[in-house]
Amino acid sequence: MFEGLTEKLNNAFKAFRGKGKLSESDVKAGMREVKLALLEADVNYKVVKEFVNSVTERAVGSEVLESLVPSQQIVKIVNEELTKLMGESQSKLTVSPKPPTIIMMCGLQGAGKTTHCGKLAGLLKKDGKRPLLVACDVYRPAAVKQLEVVGSQVGVPVFKIEDSKDPVAIAKAGVAYAEKNGLNTVFIDTAGRLEIDETLMRELQDIKAEVSPHEILLVIDAMLGQDAVNVAKTFNDMLDITGVILTKMDGDTRGGAALSVRYVTGKPIKYVGLGEKMDALEPFHPDRMASRILGMGDVLSLIEKAEKQFDEKKAAELEAKIRASEFTLDDFMDQFEQIKGMGSLEQIMGMLPGVKPGALKDVQVDEKAIDRMQAIIRSMTPAERRKPSIIDLSRKKRIAAGSGNSIDDVNRLLKQFESISKLMKQMSGVVPGKGRGLVLPGMGGKGKGKNKKRMRF
After folding, report:
1. What is the pLDDT of residues 153-199, one digit of tens each?
2. Closest of 166, 262, 168, 156 to residue 206, by C-alpha
3. Which CATH superfamily is domain 302-456 in?
């Protein structure tokens, strides 16, 4: 995410580094590079122009020119202006004082609208809401079936009317069903089109007029770049949307949509989709996103991810085992499960301060490393997991064959386990799991050398 933009901005900042003082001409020359970086990232031209003017105006003042470390001050200003551009603070969903809260989802085909109905409903269900998905896409083949599939994946019921071709009537009936059955959040999955047309917009306006949604969320593919901004402007002009969900952000190396949508529509980005899994949806925090763009990491989001996977009871049991030198391979495997629940290793690494996206180019993050390690451990007997010291050569051959790995892979895992056991015993005063206790094995992927890198956070 933002790999290209982050690299280009950091190259632009090099013009400011190493200078004790900056002149006004130095600032303007450096800001020309920043402007080019943003334009190449497919940021809307009007947005770039206003952003660069705002930063330059602040940067040529005494705040920077009289600073002891002017390069740091400029990065600070750029960070603040990026945050301001994307909305300054997180914008949460509106909740109706009288249930149900009605959320209308709209967008073009292929943006991930139906999937993100399910993702958002699943997210709210975890927060204690009782959501309902309403199938109002009556045109696309298998659209209703797709909604039922995503609904079953997150455990949320789906309302549909067989053979009905009237999305307005379905939406109205869906809201009535929610009221009758005590479901307090309704997601209306509307039909998309390959392009914006008058029929689509009239239908969406009719649904809006009938059910009076509290939120109208536009789902946009972030990889559309400038086109994403044009789509957002058209939908906003016709429907007066309340917010945006940017999807496929994990594949967007440019960042143009994220930096332009708020400015052009005046409506906040509320969520970002970061992958295909049903839990790959995050609230949008402008300040954290600005930090990611500038290569400063996103420690707060990383901690939140860790805490979601943190099981206090298991952590207490694990600490007791470590103190008693009873840390087993089963416990080691439990740590893997917590890591996998946090998302991809590359996403986790991208949130660490100082780990710039460009720096990951030469590091092959082996996403299957954890799966291979789990396969090796599952091929062991309960006795071998409890006491790895009994694993001799013949046992290693059996384990390797049973897991589809080599003896070298088994030896590598055992060596890692031994090293981490010693490290965790030394740190037995730290409760594992809460931001610091998760162990990231296999972080070195298929890099040079046999020893895999390990990282703790």
Report:
1. 999 999 999 888 899 999 999 999 999 999 999 999 999 877 777 88
2. 168
3. Signal recognition particle, SRP54 subunit, M-domain (1.10.260.30)
